[in-house]
Specification:
With 191 residues, the protein is an all-alpha fold. Helices cover 57% and strands 0% of the residues. The protein has 6 helices and no strands. α4 runs antiparallel to α5. The longest helix is centred in the middle third of the chain and has 31 residues. It starts with 31 loop residues before the first helix and ends in a 7-residue tail after the last helix. The relative contact order is 0.14.
């Protein structure tokens, strides 16, 4: 399936009338949802580590871009604009916070053998941070960023469009918020 950012890394496969040997069943019979949720817990908590490293590099690249590109006032480098400088500093700090959250999740998983619901906090934070960083990129780059570019790191539009996938895949932002509210904060389940 081709996404709006021209990435072809997602597909769906459906099987009908499939039979497998009992020895190949993962988990218990009729407990597929539990297996799926456990798998998603791992995905939400630690599977985005490579993306986090890449996101940190993107923030550093943006800082360099802001030093050489003209800012919103069309006179000074973008880095000298107070709002852009603040947003870059915030992005750098949030990337560090994301790394700390991920390390804490890995530590918990090592102790217990199972990821906890706090992986949803990491997933939620990561998805929204990804969008903020690429929105900041478009703001720094300016109109030139509107040229459609691939997601391979050679431009900014493709990665910006791809950033929306981070708030959908592995459970949407709303699902992550519900998990955090119910399982981490102990709020009542909404019916």
């Amino acid at each position: 399936i081709t996404t709006m950012s021209h990435v072809n890394d997602f597909c769906e496969v459906f099987y009908d009338d499939v039979r497998i040997p009992l020895s190949n069943v993962v988990g218990e019979i009729n407990e597929g949802w539990r297996v799926t949720m456990t798998t998603l817990s791992f995905e939400r908590g630690t599977a985005f580590m490579a993306d986090q490293v890449e996101l940190a590099a993107v923030v550093e690249r943006l800082i360099e871009e802001a030093r050489v590109r003209t800012g919103p006032d069309a006179r000074r480098p973008a880095i000298q604009d107070d709002e852009i400088a603040r947003r870059l500093g915030t992005a750098r700090a949030e990337v560090a916070a994301l790394k700390a959250m991920t390390i804490a999740g890995i530590s918990r998983t090592q102790r217990t053998g199972v990821p906890g619901p706090e992986g949803s906090m990491t997933r939620l934070f990561h998805g929204e941070l990804h969008q903020r960083v690429y929105q900041l990129a478009l703001d720094i780059i300016g109109p030139e960023a509107l040229r459609l570019t691939p997601v391979d790191g050679s431009g900014w539009t493709g990665p910006y469009l791809q950033s929306f996938a981070y708030t959908i895949g592995g459970g949407t932002t709303d699902i992550q918020r519900n998990i955090v509210g119910e399982r981490v904060l102990g709020l009542p389940r909404v019916k």
